[in-house]
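Why do we care about 3D structure at all? Because function follows from shape, and shape follows, mostly, from sequence. That is the central idea of this module. The next example makes it concrete: a single protein chain, its amino acid sequence, and then its structure expressed as tokens.
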Amino acid sequence: MKKIYIWILSLSVLILGCMDDKGNYSYSELNKITIDNIAWSNSINYGDPLNITPELSFSLDSVNVSLSYEWIVNGVVIDSTSPELHIESFKEFVGNRRCYFRVEDNSTGMKYTAEFMVNVSGTYQAGWLILSEKDNKSYLSYVKEQKKEDDDGNLIEIVYGEETDVYKNVNGTDLGSEPIKLLEHWSSNYSSIGEILVLQKSGSVELDGSALTKAVDTELEFLGETYPANFVPKDALYPEICGYLLSEDGNVYSRRNDVPKEYHSGRFMAEPMRASGGMRISHFIPTLYLNSKCILMFDELNHRYLACMDTDYEPKLCGEPTVISHKDYPDDFSDLNNMTREIVFAASYENPDPWADYENSVFSILYDRTENQYYMQNFGIGAVWYTGAINITPDYEIPFPDGDMLNGNNVFAISRKTPYFFFSAGANQEKLYWRDMNDKTGKAHLFDIDFEGHSITSIAVAMNGDRIGVGLDNGIFYLIDATDVGIWKSNVLYKTKNDMGKIKHVIFKSGARSVFMWGEE
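And the structure:
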């Protein structure tokens, strides 16, 4: 009982002490700050202004406050004085970055943060890149599509513009001579902007994908920093793990990227690749390697396809030429390991069936010299990433319904995301046609566009298949709406005004690796 009395007495003293101490502390409600009017995503072009004006709301008092501010962009505090961000010419980075606006209540030390994204497109990050020959020199031009949106993000219009001789404008020197083709390629870094390889006989070069500044001469990327003897560039394939350069003599030179997330981290071997039975490569087939986990090339010496695995899941299995060992071919389908028909054109597109065993299809135009007959062929392909085995799914190989329109001078292109195939025809290759690859019997459809008798020299398709770029021998480039090509409608979106010289190759420049992976936003 005595212990109980002592405990009660102690508790009473404690309560009285707390009551007596009540006036020693000041418990005031926090003046909470809310940050509004900062869009989550802010997209601009490199060098454009960036202006953000937040709205601050206070739960108690908006007058008697003392505040500090921080604007954190790309991990760096770029302004610590103003509640608004005004950058006249933004050149902090190219790509997509998380950024922060931070407000501190100096009287309480409480900090309030708003997070947002800034997506900066390079000056030449996405658009149409045109390689041509003019005055016996390589000539690079650029056609830009700039979207105009209202305050709610709704598209108002698309403004087109062109810049000729862009390489000289940027670098101050001529590009080179004897141009061949362009290749956009990416590192395995998700946020990377694709670099541009310019193949030309005077010496190929790599360009930065945002600014088109020269990154490196391709010759310096060989061991010994010199081209192999008798090397004359013809084509290139640059997936993630390895890179391949094709010479006109059929030799292929390869490299392995030591750090796939970085450009130029490996060197090309001075000796050409070898394969069982030898090889002489005539064609590179640009597969969608992120889907198929491999690339393809055609060995005309042995009349066969060779595949090289390419995936960062199993880098040690990548880079070795593998013979396709499929056995169960339909009676009317060519053995891919013993082709009797010549490849005229081959390219890849995405399989629209998400449940298919493969995600990459290869569409080809073949020529049978004995029959004097053109064929179209389609098959699925995919590598088993943990073994390196190449799986083939034959689809069809049938006479090309428009074979009478082909003569060996045609130009071809395929849409990656839609089932449409485009080609030139006519006495001077002055007409543009399309056909549905799923239509195995119907005739091709003519675009009702007059190219004024000039020859089509290159066709490119935008990533989503809704726009087509067409280059002519007179140096004029057409951008054509193909949104409703299936129900038929053609519309010239833009026609360049300047003579770019004889156009050799046109590409749709995707820019960001995310666009290459999933298509345009």
